[in-house]
Amino acid sequence: MSQNLKQEVNTVTYMDFNNPNGQTTIQGIRGVSESENVYITASLLGQNSIVQGLIYEGKLLGNGNEGKWHVINFPSTASQIVTNTSCYGPNNGTNGNIQIVGSYKITTSTGGLPSGNLGFYYEGPLDGSGIWTPVTPNGGNTNNVFVHSIMGGIAVGNYDVENDKNGYAFLYDINTKEYTEFKLADSLTNTLYGIWHNGGNSYTITGGYTSPKLGKLSQAFLVDYDSKTKQISNLKSFSYKNETTMSIITHFEGITASSNKGYNLAADWVTINGEGSGASFVYVNRNSDGTFGEANWIDIEFPDSNITSANTVYKNNILGIYVAKNDSGTTTISSYTAKIE
To answer: Phi and psi dihedrals of 136, rounded to 5?
Structure first.
């Protein structure tokens, strides 16, 4: 696909993509090393509103029927029963294993109320028999933890604190188990949803933020991160269609490198009046001085849907969910892929 998206009229091909055993919510994707296959992470809503983690390995073809789905859940113990596992970001591990990050919930064996979301990191076979590690930023003083993405030995995510409306972002080094707080200058809330390893100590990370300067607006951002110095550089903010007056919320949900030394991103947005929302495929190039260029936007809307979200991106493919209502009022929630050409 040509990366000069701004100058072209692009076609978008849509396809449902689901596990056949229940409502599927796709949340992450990564190409399998030395293969045409992909790993897709998702959640499966089953009976009694039980949510289980899902991993797909196979080609991005055939509505999800070309590969194999695996149910994978954070393991329960005698005192803590896991009631919900949600898999967000996959990555290639060592020796053919997979790395996964996400969140889970527990209840106690004495019948206590379900916990808030707890974060996890997993590495091992697709059957879940590997090592599960809780991810607990801020010394464990959290109300909810969501670990969204992992690459190059670093995971990124978010947490909040009880009675605090601000959102906090962090990076987690899976080898040292060290947490690094992430906060943009003058920001109120920060979210980290995507990370791309450029090589060596160089990473590019993405998400969204709010600040007093933005007022009621929330913008997406790209920024480079040096894992050795823990410094950021080349920060650039983005709003839908590159005009701040067009949206009150713009957020990047995922990132992948393009073939032209730039990045492809999955974006969600809400219009300035709050009445409209949507999803987009976004391409951002690198300028000659290393900074980020302007964003090129291609809207994603699953045919005949009421709501479409963009949850993750792989090469020139957006993946997410859509909601559709028929004439009788029946609601369908489904995952999809959208290929941009």
So the answer is: -130, 80
